[in-house]
Automatic annotation (TrEMBL):
The keyword NAD does not apply. Pfam families: Serpin. This is Serpin peptidase inhibitor, clade A (Alpha-1 antiproteinase, antitrypsin), member 10a. One of its GO terms (biological process) is blood coagulation. The keyword Signal applies. Residues 340-361 are annotated as: Disordered. It comes from the Eukaryota. It comes from Nothobranchius furzeri. InterPro entries: PZI_serpin_dom, Serpin_CS, Serpin_dom, Serpin_fam, Serpin_sf, Serpin_sf_1, Serpin_sf_2. Residues 43-391 form the Serpin domain.
């Protein structure tokens, strides 16, 4: 073998070692189990929230679950058992959960988020519990004097601004001066499609809020090859839209004659997994409205419908938070913001040009209420879930 051939062979072997075969990294089974349980809780929560309103809906189940598991770490006895059951976490070790959540949250770098526990001033909170909330959840424990409502509100809203890069200016506008313990979570996300929608093709189109109301919205456009599925049982199409940072959106559009409520009632975490598995590459023209959602929720009443009740009662056990007796959770507050538009380019430099086909392919237009689900592709973790009823409203 000549030196030149020998060098080429060495180079070829080096490339093989560097480039392949590419084997997907296997998710830790315990983390995979947690992902599935979180998705189940997130979908149940979404259904509970969406069933109470006709407005836009937007939640970040991952960050909200993290806040509740941070709270869980401070509970004991039957309070802990019931909270585990309500969060679909029965059978998992509460001592290990904080580390597992840290893994999921570390993988979700595109979300600006925060969790916080705000006990009333005078309640005993141990340094070890404060350290756990900070190190495992990136969260904060801060005592507040709730009788001074304006100052307490300022402190909570300043925290939310800091955690979300000022994307969330105000997480709360009112407070009960008798508050004993408050759990707050906040999340902000800027969608960056990859490939992106080209602004050049965006134009105002009709969006049918319902059969009585039509609004004009900026409708983004892109032609190309997409992953698409159809659910015959729910009568809805499912479109996958890849985004930057290893995140993807599933946009779920009910048929024109199908009420979105019936689709929502049929959505489960297993159903979402089935949609992903059924996706097939299809040539399409896609129109999707720009939208900005900013939704706030006080979830005490919602949680009680999900059988999470004892934390709110006089017999709640928060002994692992620092030994305080007679403490109960007053409220769980959650605020999340998402911006979906065609103004942000992907940092990888991916192009935004629509593909030109010799024959125009079918067009899928999201011009009526639809559901969207955002998940981390590497873990399958459910990050956000929402409903766009009217893109012109937050």
């Amino acid at each position: 073998m000549t030196p030149s051939v020998h060098a080429v062979c060495r180079l070829f072997l080096l490339l093989l070692l560097r480039l392949g075969p590419v084997v997907p990294e296997r998710l830790d089974p315990a983390v995979e189990d947690l992902v599935n349980r979180n998705a189940d809780f997130g979908v149940r929560l979404y259904r509970a929230v969406s069933s109470r309103t006709d407005d836009n809906v937007f939640l970040c189940p991952l960050v909200l679950s993290a806040a509740l598991v941070a709270l869980l770490s401070g509970t004991g006895s039957s309070t802990r058992s019931q909270l585990l059951q309500g969060l679909t976490l029965v059978g998992l070790d509460p001592e290990v959960l904080p580390d597992q959540f840290r893994t999921l949250m570390d993988a979700s770098t595109s979300i600006q988020q925060g969790v916080a526990i705000f006990p009333a001033q005078g309640l005993s909170v141990s340094p070890s519990y404060q350290d756990l909330v900070q190190t495992k959840f990136g969260g904060k424990v801060q005592s507040l004097f709730y009788a001074a409502v304006p100052e307490a509100l300022d402190a909570i809203n300043a925290w939310a601004q800091e955690q979300t890069g000022t994307q969330i200016q105000q997480v709360l506008s009112t407070l009960d001066p008798q508050t004993q313990l408050l759990v707050v979570s906040a999340a902000s996300y800027q969608a960056r499609f990859n490939p992106i929608f080209n602004q050049t093709f965006t134009q105002d189109e009709r969006f049918y809020v319902n059969k009585y109301r039509v609004v004009m919205v900026p409708m983004m456009f892109r032609a190309g090859k997409f992953l698409l599925a159809y659910d015959r049982s729910l009568k809805a199409g499912v479109l996958k839209l890849p985004m930057a940072d290893g995140v993807a959106m599933l946009a779920v559009l009910p048929d024109e004659i199908t009420d979105i409520t019936s689709v929502e009632e049929g959505v489960t975490s297993e159903k979402i997994q089935a949609w992903v598995q059924k996706l097939k590459k299809t040539k399409l023209e896609v129109q999707l409205p720009r939208f900005l959602l900013e939704r706030s929720y006080s979830l005490k009443n919602i949680f009680q419908t999900l059988d999470i009740t004892q934390v709110f009662q006089d017999d709640a056990d928060f002994s692992n938070m620092g030994g305080a007796n007679g403490v109960k959770l007053t409220e769980v507050c959650h605020k999340s913001v998402i911006s979906v538009d065609d103004s942000r380019s992907d940092p990888s430099g991916a192009g935004s040009e629509s593909t030109a086909f010799s024959t125009p392919p079918p067009r899928l237009t999201f011009n009526r209420p639809f559901i969207f689900i955002i998940y981390q592709e590497s873990t399958g973790s459910l990050l956000f879930m929402g409903r766009v009823t009217n893109p012109t409203e937050k």
